[in-house]
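Lab notebook, design round three. We kept the backbone fixed and only want residue identities now. Task for the bench partner: fill in a sequence for the structure below.
Input structure tokens:
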């Protein structure tokens, strides 16, 4: 069953039309969000997601309307109500409902959430990889904030799809930052490389899981800025995100990437064990 929660209440239907016109999330994108995947009734890396949620809220000077304990309980309750074992939980907090003025209103922040069965990942993509398109990163300087403002990401993803690609890989000042909704990893001569967790990328939770797995598996992993050419010469490359998990890359623009995926497959297998 699909579940929705808005401003303190569970709703009858996910599609219930209840967002007030003067909701600042709707009018300004004035809020932040998270997405957590639940495997077998257990939210994966929930504490890390809640840490990032808190950091994102603090970065936009927004006070969360619930304590961490309360957030955990609302999520748990929602998952139970859904009666599903494997779900995607999206939750956001906005600066509330107030007359349309740029200045922060004196209102309480509003928390909302949807819970739906996990979007399946195409097994062919897990196995054989996805094509990606290189595009300029046109976003702001604070991409570490998981902001509701996703316009450049949405447009980049759409451009990629219109060229038959699954993801847009963003490039800023000659360096790759990340995907439009994923982090990027490149493997060269046995070492795994990814862009450093600066303010210019989202500090992905799946990215963090890959670091933990690499450490456990004694695979060398490095945070380093790199160029499009480095990606094109990769032995393997993959993207990560909560809903896409670990997906190999088989093509960058019109260039093929090797498809043996030796290390990527090992990481996928270990990730599967973590989430089983
Ligand atoms: C821009 C961007 N980078 C990276 C990620 C991956 O983050 P996570 O692994 O926490 O889902 C996402 C996920 O939505 C994203 O939107």
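Proposed sequence:
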């Amino acid at each position: 069953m699909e579940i929705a929660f808005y401003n303190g209440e569970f709703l009858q239907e996910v599609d219930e039309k209840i967002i007030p016109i003067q909701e600042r999330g709707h009018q300004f994108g004035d809020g932040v969000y998270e997405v957590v995947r639940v495997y077998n009734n257990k939210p994966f890396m929930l504490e890390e997601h809640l840490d990032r949620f808190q950091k994102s809220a603090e970065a936009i000077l927004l006070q969360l309307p619930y304590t961490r304990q309360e957030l955990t309980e609302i999520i748990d309750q929602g998952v139970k109500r859904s009666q599903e074992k494997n779900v995607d939980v999206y939750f956001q907090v906005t600066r509330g409902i107030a007359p349309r003025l740029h200045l922060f209103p004196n209102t309480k922040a509003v928390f909302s959430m949807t819970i739906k069965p996990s979007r399946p990942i195409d097994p062919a993509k897990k196995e054989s990889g996805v094509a990606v398109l290189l595009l300029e990163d046109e976003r702001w300087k604070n991409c570490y904030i998981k902001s509701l403002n996703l316009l450049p990401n949405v447009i980049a993803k759409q451009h990629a799809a219109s060229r038959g690609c699954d993801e847009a890989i963003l490039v800023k000042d000659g360096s790759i930052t990340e995907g439009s909704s994923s982090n990027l990893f490149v493997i060269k001569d046995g070492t795994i490389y990814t862009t450093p967790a600066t303010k210019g990328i989202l500090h992905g939770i799946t990215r963090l899981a890959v670091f933990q797995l690499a450490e456990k598996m004694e695979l060398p992993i490095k945070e380093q800025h790199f160029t499009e050419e480095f990606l094109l010469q990769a032995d393997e490359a993959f993207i990560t995100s909560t809903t896409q998990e670990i997906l190999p890359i088989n093509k960058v623009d019109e260039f093929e990437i090797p498809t043996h995926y030796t290390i990527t497959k090992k990481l996928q297998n270990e990730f599967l064990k973590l989430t089983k």
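Keep this in mind before ordering anything: Residues 3-117 form a domain with the D-amino Acid Aminotransferase; Chain A, domain 1 fold (CATH 3.30.470.10).
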